[in-house]
Every structure is written in structure tokens, then in C-alpha cells.
Design brief:
This protein is α+β, with helices and mostly antiparallel strands. Helix content is about 25%, strand content about 25%.
Length: about 375
Amino acid sequence: MSARRTVAILFGGRSSEHEVSCTTAGGVLGAIDREAWNVIAVGVGRDGSWTLQSDNPADWALADGTMHHVEPSERRVLLPVAAGERMWRVESGGVVSDLAEVDVAFPLLHGPWGEDGTLQGALELLDVRYVGAGVLASAMGMDKQYMKAAFRAAGLPVADDVVLMPGDNVADVRDQVEALGLPVFVKPARAGSSMGISRVDSWEQLDAALADAVKHDPKVLIERGMVGREIETAVLGARDGVRTSPPGEIVAVGDQAFYDFESKYFADDAVRLDCPADLPAADAERVRDVAARAFRAVSGEGIARVDVFYAPDGTVTVNEINTMPGFTPTSMYPRMWASAGLTYPQLIEELLEAALARPLGLR
């Protein structure tokens, strides 16, 4: 058997999705093949520090409604100082020692400073191979304004919206906003996990929704509410090309208005996840085709989940692409692949091998 290669699992981060990232890391740490991979767990603290953390999946798993976070540590991880060097080091108590020669990084950070191209750029500077989208795709996938611009340029249908830049006054574009009709969704332009998203059913609710959104991002989208079922497709950019999973569906239960943060991670009875979705075969194939086109529109690589609205008349409208979707064993992305016969450990292996196979340099 060949020598084990080393993967650095990166998680945590400075964004509001810090705890979500830690939960994702717990899932990956529990499923990765330890006979094939030497695993080092690198937590990125809320202050941006990189520290060596436990690689025990139980230390990061969601339990009793509690998410974990990266605790401060004196074991600071030091990246290589020049491109091409593979040795990562750890400094503790003023003493620097070798940690491991890293073959590939697996960034599991969600949101800004992790999923938006900033971390990817740092890894590119050092010629570190990594799983997932590159700098451009990550940046566009994080910023809903430019994501939708790429989709429109590729001929993909998206919901109408009004963008409020930092410092803009909604009163100045009130006519454009009201022309969208009710309901509208108010969204931070560069946030994920449904944080800061509000459904507005009367214009009196708009100011409160905007105030909530700007807690997460000073740039905000006000988007026309779409009629239709929420359908998701997992996309895998592997060594054999771009593949799509059978679509899955998030079904709201009871009074759940939309798939918000609480229902994603805590309220087990708020939604039902159907994999595969109950769609006519031809429409399911059309959804998969749209997902692949959306992936290519932003120059996606490795992993992505594409969310669409499926209207009663069969119309498909792209909602968004997520270049680092939830990746716990119970998240939609791995569940959709499981419905196609690709297990969670196999999926992790495919992503790692695809990252290793990609050439360094411009992508």
C-alpha cells in the first residue's frame, strides 16, 4: 500500500457561519479514510488565527442543539513561507516544529473570509492544492449580485431584484422595490446559511428586514418572491468531468415560511428533505442541466449545490449556487449523492482526488 498522503482540514473562520463550519468539519473528520490519509485539523479562530485542533470528529459534532467553535490555542499553525514548499509547521511556547508536508487542503469554511475567494487566494499564492472552487468562482458564488449577473449572461433565468449598496437609501429606489411586488426576500449579498434573510409580506416590514440583513453585510438584495418548489442539485466537478446528482427537495412542514437557519440546523420537524425529489423524469433532467450550466457560468470546480425554484408550470428559475454547501452526513449535498449511490466517504475521496489532479497556477 502506498504511503498515506496528508490533508489539512480547514474550518471555523471569521464569519457568522463559524459554528456551521465546525459542524461540517466534524462530519468530514468522521468519514475520511484514515488509512489513506494523514489528517491534520486546522481551526481558524474568530480572530483569524490558525491553530492545531483536535481531529476527533466527536469534538465537533452537533449534539443536543449545540454547535462548537474553535477555542483559542497556543499551538499556532504556520503555513509555508514560499510557493512550492509543502511543510506546514506549528509554533507553541516559542518553539517551532514541523507538523506535516501537506498534499492538499480541504477548506470547509462558510461565508466571508473562507468561501469568498480570500482563503483560496492565500492557498494559490503558496501553490497549495485545495478542494473546491477557485478564486473567481468562490467570489462570484459568495456575492449574489455578481452571481446573478453571471447567470443572466449565461442565459439562465433568475428572479428580479434591487441591489442596495452600502450607504444607499431604500427611499431613493422605493418605486423599483415596490415594482417587484409582494412578497419579497431581503438578503445579505454575501452571507450564507440563510442568515439575515427575511420574507417581507407587507412594505411595513421592509425596514426591519433591511436592518437585520445589514448586520451580516452592508450590501443587500431585495428580491422578488418566486412561486414554486425549492429544488436542489448537487454538482461534482471530478476527474471525469462535471456530474450532477438527482435533484432533492426541501419541503416546509406546517407554518414554516422558508428554509431558514433554525430549520436547517435545529428544528428537525420544520422541514422534510426528499431525495430524490418527486419530479417528472424530463423535468428532473432539465433541473440537472440548469445546475450544470450554473456551475459552468461561474467557472465552478469540485463541489457546489445549485438551488432552483420549480414552478407549477414546470418553469425553472435559478436561486443561487453555493460553492461550499453544508457537508455534514445529513446535509442535502451528500444526501443527494447518496441517492445516486455515491457514499459520503466516497464523495470525500472523489473531491480530494480531483483537487490533487488539478494543475497548479492559473485556473
